[in-house]
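Dear colleague,

Thank you for sharing your sequence with our group. We've completed the structure prediction you requested, and as agreed, I am returning the results in plain text so they can be pasted directly into your records. Please verify that the sequence below matches your submission; if there's any discrepancy, let me know and we will rerun it promptly.
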Amino acid sequence: MSVVDDIGRVAQRRLGHALRARVAGEDASAAAAVIWGREGERRFGPDDPVWRVHADASMFPGGVAALLLQSLHPSAMAGVAGHSGYRSDPWGRLQRTSHFLATTTFGTVEDADAAIATVRSIHERVRGRDDEGVPYRASDPGLLAWVHVAEAWSFLSAFQRYAAAPLTPEEADRYVEQSAVVARLLGADPVPTDVEGLLTALEAFRPALRATPAARDAARFLLLDPPLPWTARPGYGLIASGGVALLPRWVRSELRLPVSSPVAGAAGVLGLVGTRAVRWAMAGVAEERRVTPRR
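Please find the predicted structure tokens below.
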């Protein structure tokens, strides 16, 4: 291996560790050792579509799209604004979400069920009234179904657009079916189990969706004023552009995102570039993703 190759590997590892620390926290190595290394039965394996989707760099723009889409439900947005601390501790919220997704996808059944039980107990305490005075509770099965539908649609859409090898139609149906497992355990109902059902569910929610002032404020925070140093914002901008490009036109219109169809196409190209950069960086820490085989 040449000196140039050595320098490249060092840069790759450093960037990979920096990205992982931002998304998963400073104790990411210790958490990875538990999630990937603990022995025990697992619900999913490396060949399962849900594993492939959730392990891919496309989750970065997919996550941006999911947050923007979820914000269109007034009750969901009220819960985030009132209880999540997304402004005061945005990285902490991201890291908790990332840890939950990793544990429930890649971890043992025992650890996954413990994580689900913890989130369910938190949901029981999250309640209030949205901007229109409508009471909500985070444990409501219908509200949980919306959060799941928005996430599953966004993650799958991002993978199909930005992954090196998109899922086949059969694998995409399997992804929706597998992602529904955790959603049901969290209390969501009804939960779609194939792509057609996912699209139908998304359309069924449309009459309840609208951009409240809180939703537009969250979009501005996420897209225009992220809690990042200026040196990191260009890279984040690529990922955020990719997330916005995934959204249907009606979602962009509701959130007043000035992205016409031609510009959205360009944003998708930027998202692809950003996703490839993240994928390259995360390959530098791939050795920590060697899971103990299912037993």
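Summary note from our side: The mean pLDDT is 83.

Kind regards,
the structure core
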